Amino acid sequence: MISKRFLQLFVLVLTLLGVFIAIMRHEQTQIPFLSNNKKDVWMVEARVDFKAQKNRPITVSLSLPEDTLGYKLYFEQSVSAGYGFSMVQKDGIKRGEWSIRQAQGKQTLYYKAQIVQDFSNDLPLKKVESELHIKDEILWSASEQIAANEIIDLAYAKSSNNITFTRELIKILTDMQTRKDGSLLLLKREYINVLSKLLSDAGVLHRISLALELEDARRNQSLTSVIEVLDKDEWVLFDPNNALQEEDKNFFLWTRGGKSLIEIQGGSNATVNFSMVKQSMPALELAQAHFDESGFGIFSIHRLPIEEQSLFKILLLLPIGALITVFMRLIIGIKTSGTFMPVLIAMAFLQTSLFLGLLNFVVLVAIGLILRSYLSNLNLLLVSRIATIIVIVIFLVAFMTLVGYELGFNTGMSVAFFPIIILAWTIERMSILWEEEGAKEVLTQGSGSLLVAVLAYMAMVNGYVAHLCFNFPELHLIVIALMILMGRYTGYRLLELRRFREFKNS
Amino acid sequence: MFSFITPFALKRSGILGMNSRNIEFISRYNNRKLFPLVDNKLQTKLLANEYGINTPELLFVMQYQHDVYELKEKLKDISCFAIKPACGSGGKGILVIKGREGEGFVKSSGMIIEVEEVIRHVTNILAGLYSLSGDQDVALVETLIEADTVFDDYSYQGVPDIRIIVFQGYPVMAMLRLSTKDSDGKANLHQGAVGVGLDIKTGKPINAVMNGKKVLIHPDTKHSFDTIKIENWRELLLLASSCYDMTNLGYLGADIVLDKNRGAMLLELNARPGLSIQVANSKGLLPRLREIEKVASKRTNVQKRVDFVLEKEGF
After folding, report:
1. B129 to chain A, closest Cα gap in Å
2. Contacts (Cβ under 8 Å, ≥6 apart) of A225
3. Domain closes at, from B115, B143, B171
4. Which residue, among B6, B10, B16, B30, would best test binding to A if mutated, counting the most A CBs under 10 Å from its CB?
């Protein structure tokens, strides 16, 4: 066995190394240790994939975002080997154009932009294009025209100007959608087109635009259609699915006025995917971190494509959850079911939200346990039993998604973030525990797991922790040092002080 | 409700904690590659036979699924027996048949089951239903233990066993485990069985605990534990201590049963014995373990080791 002295030295070296590298990085890249800057900076990346046609010159034209209300473009960059790139203005729209003489097979182009979110700034540029032609694809039939007029009259009566009119209209339409009796107008039609047609009928100047919904650490996102309404020379943005203009709904306008997002010559099957990651630090420093060519700049996560960055943003939080689990098990003495199951639950909570995540988890495991007790009557072998539970869990998730959707909650969506296999194992383990040790032990271990998961979640969701983990990955050396220290801790666990309380008097 | 003891007081009492047990004793004295010797009851039994240690008699082993077709034939002349999974733990998957009624088998609870049910139980064992890891397992068919009458007043169903902690071949602490209605006939403390601490020198009862609390009488039979008397205590210690020579595991728990006809028998061994034995004995393990660490040497034999403990003051 390695001696205690050596171990202590090793731990010390790890800690000093972690601190040293972090300070060096801070000196070099100027990334602050504390993220006390209130401004949110988004790194957004558009990834264009397509298949090149043989022996043909290729031109790819992607519409690019411009400054809008609350968002300021700070830095733009394109990464694409061998391609020429330039930004041009076409029909009043900013577009990025990549070109190459020849290419083969699958091609990937990246456009990165750094956006500073700042609603406190003075009013942004509100260009009103002179030409504004709305081409609605919908033609009402006579009976539909009557229904449409009715809706317009209703909304008109309840409103005072274009803004409030649009809001009322969206309210009526979303209501019809959930009640499913607006079928006459909405049947077989795109919702956004119906809304647009109704606005046209009422003579409200508007346009359909594409916007990116900003959410931290998301990958493979696509753009959402939004409606912009002209009011006193200003475009006002509406979420077509939600009448309330929510400020915190982070819509970042990408393409205005129904212009195509991507045009391609010499290629086919073009797709555009968006990834983004949020940082709370001064924009200048962040830009330096991203485009720094010096030693630390190269060995930095910031150099990766945003898609990978957003993945690492979550991955680098995992050690914190693991550290908390180690602490709770070895120092406190909490019993959990499955060693690192709590960390995985906590990761799922990160994707959902704490309350909904907890609710979903408890309901899923409870229903799973009930169904599992029927399974045990069938005397199945372990492997097929767990496989069956996996299918049951998927059914449950689908069911809860449906229920959530019908009730108007978005909970269902979030259930899918739970690791299905882990859930199935949890249910299996808990039910065996129930049979062997009784319900009390299931409650102890279950609530122990949840407690650890919640604590891990609270640590991982903390802004400072996230900032340090992501920007100073070397600090994880200290995490390892702490884990090693706790791994050799031979003292009593906190709960043992209770377990052996009888010895107080001896 | 929220009563705690300070870590210093706990240390003064010499209580062995979970972390200390795992790091300073199990991982230091128990070589991982020896674990299968105790985690697999068949291996333990074969080894015990080699070393002349008394165990419940093995009638036959069912290793493959096609063996079960011969089960009915093999059980023809056996009326009492127990079927166990080799890799089960905590008394899981043990089927006890205490007699026959026509074609049917009488379970310990008195329920009568058909031969098909027995076959299904064996099939489940073979498939790993009761195995810790879920891997395939083998089923042992053993003669039934007939509990010594000395414990008749202290046990609800189930056979009581004596857990002795053996450290580097020296017996250091002992406890009698009695099943209760709560523990469902099982002798595991965390399932609600009663643990009666036994004086390591004499085998006399010290103190009894159930669910972490002191008790004076058995909750089901209402008998006081004071009167428990175990004969041939030295023999029991010898049996437990020789398990060290047999397995080379430095820190182990030997579970011993007393059979009416065949005397003390080794039931199973445990490479990670629990800590509740300290509560049952109102004594911490640490001082004894440290004492043994000072004197332990490979060159002593079982007799000398047991005598050392019997003569040692303060144990």
Report:
1. 6
2. A192, A208, A209, A210, A211, A240
3. B143
4. B10
